[in-house]
Amino acid sequence: MRAIMKKIDFKSLIEILIISIKLGLTSFGGPIAHLGYFHAEYVRKRKWMDEKSYADLVALCQFLPGPASSQVGIGIGIIRGGIIGGIIAFIGFTMPSVIALIIFALVLQRLDIGDAGWIHGLKIVAVAIVAHAILGMAQKLTPDLQRKAIALAALTITLLWQTVFTQVLVIILAGFFGFLLYKKYVPDKPASFSFPVSRRFGTFCLALFFGLLVALPVLRELTSVSWIAMFDSFYRAGALVFGGGHVVLPLLEREFVPTGWLHADEFLAGYGAAQAVPGPLFTFAAYIGAVINGWQGGLLATFAIFLPAFLLIVGTLPFWDSLRHNPKIQGALIGVNAAVVGILISAFYTPIWTSSILEPVDFVFAAILFSMLAYWKRPPWMVVVTGAVGGMLIFSVY
Fold first, then answer.
1. What family classification does the UniProt entry report for this protein (predicted)?
2. Residue 226: CA atoms inside 13 Å, Cβ hemisphere, count?
3. Could you read off the pLDDT of 343-373 as tens digits, one per residue?
């Protein structure tokens, strides 16, 4: 507890809260787009992390189960402000969409906004944001032909062989080839971070993660308490899913629709609402929980589905910094970071590009938004607002 509470910098915590809320209100487009927003805000603008450290953190979170973008945000919060900073970063980034989806569940379930023009405009914003992030990361992480080849292989495999475990397998293979190719390479030393979390506390979090994974189904069978059953379903969904929010949706459907917790049309209405709000798609759990048991159920579902992600990132970060400075590990990380670029390009094509660029006017608008971000150096929130307004205008004309 002393490690968690000591040296609390309230100014930094307030800064983390303000920035994470801004990201939570403006980060549309899914987990890959979120990484682009984080890169623009935390790396390019505020320089809280260097490019290599950000790429290392992204690689770690891509390897872990759960919502990768949320784990990256939590990790940055911990690096900047300790455990409390990680909690605040999570709350700021997640709560806007949680509140919106609970309201959708309680009041606006029958409102059809799936085809609204401003929604399509925000999808085009995601194209510009992700393209900008990919270009910046590719310049840093794939400077030579070997790393470009690893990125190309990762792109090819993740596009043509789309399974739950493809991404994890690609990262493992990239680490292996990176180790073989760069075991004698001495890269620039990444910045070190001081974690106010001990390895002992990290080990406790990892033990709690696995303990709950085993104990909750047992408690569910031994009791008839509905909230324990809900907690178990959402916790397992958050703990066992690789690949981000879109992968968790069918799992949640199997958990709650056939069992009668909610109807199929309610599930689909919530899915449409989840696509319309910023922030992590895992907050779809808040909608399901609110349909089942009001706003209390929404908050419980949110806590349960994100708890595994928090335990995993807190449990691994105390070990991660020392591992990534190990010369034997750095070669593997070079390969993994190159693969992350390929994975980002793969996700950029589908679902971001394929669901956003439907007409020539969409491509022109995406080019304008990209230019605002890359050349005119406009802040991301301005690009988001322009995208929403432009989407409405395009929808009204076409």
1. Belongs to the chromate ion transporter (CHR) (TC 2.A.51) family.
2. 9
3. 888 878 876 788 789 899 999 999 999 999 8
